Amino acid sequence: MRYHIDSNRVSHERLQDEVIIINVATGSYFSGSGTAADVWTLIAAGASFDEILSILAAAYGTDTSMIKGDVETCIAKLIESAVIGLADTAPATGVRELPDVQRSSWSPPVFDEYSDMWDLLQADPIHDVGETGWPYVLPRPAP
Description:
By secondary structure, this protein is of the alpha+beta class. The protein has a domain at 3-94. Helices cover 32% and strands 17% of the residues. The chain has helices at 35-44, 49-60, 64-80, 117-123, and strands spanning 3-4, 10-15, 18-23, 28-33, 85-86, 112-114. The strands form two sheets. A four-stranded antiparallel sheet has the order 2-3-4-6, covered by helices on one side. The protein has a two-stranded antiparallel sheet with strand order 1-5. Helix 1 (35-44) runs antiparallel to helix 2 (49-60) and helix 2 crosses helix 3 (64-80). It is elongated and about 75 Å long. The chain starts with a strand and ends in a 20-residue tail after the last helix.
């Protein structure tokens, strides 16, 4: 099983040991560090569920059976939040390795979700585009 990130709806960036994910369609954004950032990195690289388990187990010095439930829960939450979906076909082979960062022991991957960005996105004047495009200056009323 592999996963798909719709680049028209979701933007993401990894910065050292943290990943930021923005669902521009809903205005929700997510922040995850440590194991969560590693799960996201592998999903974005096109890794299958089994590959994700194997790579994470090796990186954290644990057994796949010990982390499987945690990873399933994390991925289910990402699917529920509409930032990933199940891939119809296997993506092109990409690099499926984790960045070289300091890792501690395994802990369940968790993404914090924030929904306060939706109001900001709606208030952004770039969303108020008319037929003439943006920016568009309204004509002044006659004196």
